[in-house]
Amino acid sequence: MTKYAEVITRIKEDMEQGGLRRGDQLPSIRSLSLELNCSTNTIIKAYQQLEQEHLIYPVPRSGYFVVDPQRIPNEGKGEEDAIDFVSAGPDREIMPYRDFQHSMNQAIERYREDLFSYSEIQGLHSLRVQLARQLRDVQVFTVPENIFVVTGSQQALHLLISLPFPNGKCRLAVEQPTHTSMLESIRQQRVHAYGVEVTRDGLNLEHLESLFRTGEIKLFYTVSRFHNPTGYSYTNEEKKRMVELAQNYDVYIIEDDYLGDLDTNSKQDPMFAYDSSGRVIYTKSFSKVMLPGLRLGLAVLPSELHESFLRAKYAADVHTPVLMQGALEIYLENGMFETHLQKMRTIYRNKAEKLREACRRYLPAGTAYTEPRSGFYSVLELPPPLTAEQLRKHLAVKGVLVNEASGMYLPEFRKSTVIRLSVSQVAEEQIDRGIMLIAEGIWELLLASRKGIQFI
């Protein structure tokens, strides 16, 4: 072991064993070099490596201090991790921690004076200029004046469903299933919502039109690409038809394009691109493609909603944190975001292909599944008489984690037979084995059911 590696190992062991705790100061570079009989450059290099791992931090003219020893990776000290089809955050292995750290440091310098005052409710103008440029890459052409920076796109959804709209209507239409945070916003605000079913073949457009025709629907909420949880993406023809219906029946659409950046098909457009009437409100998040902890998103709003949305945003949080906005601005303007997206698209495309192939190969007859394109989501509908809860418990014993999707439905649409799969944090080499174990679990439960055995 080199002296450099020896220094790092020794400090990590001190942290693990409690010799160094959060906030403790590390030995000075000179004293540690004398104690270990090595050069000061070796100690500096080791401390810099520990800093890059976010285990220690420097204080000018004071030295280095421990950040959080509880977060030291416990490599090689436990059983093999479970295959996790539940977690839905971005792939941890390719998150741009270092690049974004540089952007954050620059933002502290650029916006240090702004930290002593409240910022623009709508978001930093310079960031909105960068966002308008970036949106052009996904065929959303707008101006900075129509862009509103929000604390995660969920904030925009939560505020919009309660706002009065120019059409004077008050009810919502939402895809079924849909993500739980949207359903929770509907429950919390006691908004009446109608569901429109999304299957492996897409949305029931006839049902959607019948709802629009009633004259009660203010908003239709849709995830147009890489739907959560089905993974479905609408065709351009389907998107155009939905926009036509919204225009014909005076309904607004919230188009949640949270994964649109991952679409590798340049011919696929958002609904926003087909709307010239201001009926489509476009929302976007940076959580799934970058770092969920950023809590940054945007909404592109028609002029008639600007004032009411600003008032609602002000009441919610005054403004989105300036440092996060500034860091994202720098990240975008330096081209880091586009470089990161190229890696993301390749990885998630490969994951989607592996998931599709594994489902085709292993899943027993009677198990329906949606074919993912994003490398994030798919759903399995189990053959009767199995339930998602049965399978979840059965697979946990095998070290496979899955999530039943019953909480992603309005009460009248709820199903007990649907499993949501997320492969965003599953290593490519684990996907095949994971689906094989799921298929094995389905077979075991089906056989047990036929024999009248309670098999958990």
Describe this structure in words.
The chain has 3 domains: 3-71, Winged helix-like DNA-binding domain superfamily/Winged helix DNA-binding domain (Arc Repressor Mutant, subunit A), CATH 1.10.10.10; 97-336, Aspartate Aminotransferase, domain 2 (3-Layer(aba) Sandwich), CATH 3.40.640; 341-450, Aspartate Aminotransferase, domain 1 (Alpha-Beta Complex). The chain has 14 helices and 16 strands. It has helices spanning 3-16, 29-36, 40-52, 97-110, 125-136, 153-160, 180-188, 205-213, 236-248, 306-317, 322-333, 336-362, 388-397, 428-450; strands at residues 56-59, 63-66, 83-84, 147-150, 171-176, 193-199, 202-203, 217-222, 252-256, 280-285, 297-300, 368-369, 377-381, 400-401, 403-404, 418-422. The protein has an 8-stranded mixed β-sheet with strand order 4-11-10-9-8-5-6-7. Strands 12-13-16-15 form a 4-stranded antiparallel β-sheet, with helices on one face. It has a two-stranded antiparallel sheet with strand order 1-2. Mean pLDDT is 90; it is low at 71-79.
TL;DR?
The protein is an alpha/beta fold.
Write the layout of secondary structure elements.
Elements: H1 3-16, H2 29-36, H3 40-52, E1 56-59, E2 63-66, E3 83-84, H4 97-110, H5 125-136, E4 147-150, H6 153-160, E5 171-176, H7 180-188, E6 193-199, E7 202-203, H8 205-213, E8 217-222, H9 236-248, E9 252-256, E10 280-285, E11 297-300, H10 306-317, H11 322-333, H12 336-362, E12 368-369, E13 377-381, H13 388-397, E14 400-401, E15 403-404, E16 418-422, H14 428-450
Parallel strand pairs: 3-14, 5-6, 5-8, 8-9, 9-10
Antiparallel strand pairs: 1-2, 4-11, 6-7, 10-11, 12-13, 13-16, 15-16
Helix pairs in contact: 1-3, 2-3, 4-11, 5-11, 8-9, 12-14, 13-14
